[in-house]
Specification:
The chain has one domain (3-218). It has eleven helices and eight strands. Helix content is 51%, strand content 15%. The strands form four sheets. It has a two-stranded antiparallel sheet with strand order 1-6. A two-stranded antiparallel sheet has the order 2-5.
């Protein structure tokens, strides 16, 4: 892949990201999802281009601290940090945590004291960053009550199961990835600010992270 094609895909993602932030409608989010799906396909090329140019992409990631893990212990939960934050008109979304049990007053106080999740810079490659987990969900398996989904899986399954890259109901059949579809649909059923599904806010955060971290490649001319 040429650097000029990366420039094109960067500008395409930037346009769809801006449109989704502004309009927040299902069409703009499907288009954003499809643009992100292309970046998953480009991951090796992006990683190689950064290495060849000796560029360290400023990729940020959030790993829950021990205090958060301790607060979630023993509870079936859904945790979507959205640590990069999503700015949109009149609202900023910085994290979603659903715990399927009543919290004690001390637990509520402790969680409030933690504040919103804050990401930190990493030395991950672009490929590693896409493979890093950003969503923890109940698995339905008592032996392993939770599983995690990566940025890449979320992008691919949203693009497939919700109709961004294939008509809904006619998506690719891949047993290794289709097993995540129920969790994507559950996440899609969680309504966040402005009445839009949590899946959309996760896509906005990922897109914002890609645009910020790969701007150095967009500025590269050779």
């Amino acid at each position: 892949m040429s650097i000029s094609h990366l420039h094109l895909q960067y500008d395409r993602l930037a346009r769809h990201h801006a449109s989704a932030l502004q309009t927040k409608d299902p069409i703009s989010f499907l288009d954003l999802s499809h643009a992100l799906r292309v970046w998953v396909d480009m991951k090796t090329s992006v990683t190689d281009m950064a290495r060849e140019r000796s560029l360290q992409l400023d990729l940020v990631h959030f790993s829950p601290p021990k205090s958060v893990k301790k607060s979630l212990k023993g509870a079936v939960h859904t945790y979507l940090p959205l640590a990069g934050g999503v700015d949109s008109p009149d609202v900023q979304v910085t994290g979603i945590r659903i715990t399927n049990r009543a919290l004690t007053p001390d637990e509520i106080k402790a969680r409030a004291a933690m504040g919103p999740p804050v990401p930190s810079s990493t030395k991950m490659t672009f490929t590693e960053w896409l493979a890093a987990s950003v969503l923890e969900v109940p698995s339905g398996n008592p032996a392993h009550p939770h599983l995690t989904l990566s940025r890449e899986i979320i992008i691919k399954r949203v693009a497939n199961v919700l109709g961004a890259s294939h008509p809904a109901g006619m998506e690719d059949s891949d047993p290794q990835e289709n097993k995540y579809d129920p969790y994507i649909l559950d996440l899609h059923g969680i309504v966040v600010a402005d009445g839009y599904p949590a899946t959309y806010y996760q896509l906005l955060e990922i897109a914002g992270g890609i645009l910020a971290s790969t701007k150095c490649l967009r500025d590269s001319r050779a």
